[in-house]
Fold this protein.
Amino acid sequence: MARHPKAADFNAELQADTPLLEDVLWRELEFSESLMAGSGGPPIYGTRATWDYYQRRRRAARLRKWAEATAILGAPWIGLMAQDAPGAKRKCVAVGVEMLAACVAATRDAGDWLAKLGTAIAIEVLRRSRIAQRVMISEQTAHRWRLAYAEIASKRADAEIVSVLGRRLLGALFAKAPESSRQLAAKTAASNLFEVLQRETPLEPAGSGEWENVQLLVMVALGDDDAADSRRRSEGKA
């Protein structure tokens, strides 16, 4: 406890006429939790019941790891780390839809190849492809992504197609993060998505110069429009 930011206050409590060690320990834990409250991790909750103390300490330790991972990784991974399994799958679907919308916009081809998506998803792809300020990709990247789509569609159907497609792009982007950060994210995320991304077949853009646009595309797909706009401005693309 000597290195704690409020060590002096806690020591004063211990040296009082009627020291309450239990109360001091709870306050130390609650202070640690309060430092992590803005980390974007899972919500902090619990009681002062004795049985809850060690569970909350483990949760606080996990939040410290969470804060460390998100500080290093940044967008678009912070939001993904907070998603449970169903939420993570929805985000992968959103990325896959955005990828196909970019393919349609790049090639101006919205033919029968979208039929395997099912009506609802195909309509969403077409809607997204017509957005005026959308992130563009090259025709070469569109061709590569459509080949991957065809391969996935031969084995999957409907939302599963775009889910796998999105995972492959996220996997390629995630692979660019430092190894230590990838391992930390896999251990602290709310779902097993980051473990899956490390096993997924990566799907990269056709040219190395397209990575910035690909990251913008992913951030838009995940709903992180503010971060995407900020990145556009910093790169002179607004």
User: Anything to note?
Assistant: The chain has two domains: 7-73, 77-234. Residues 7-73 form one domain.
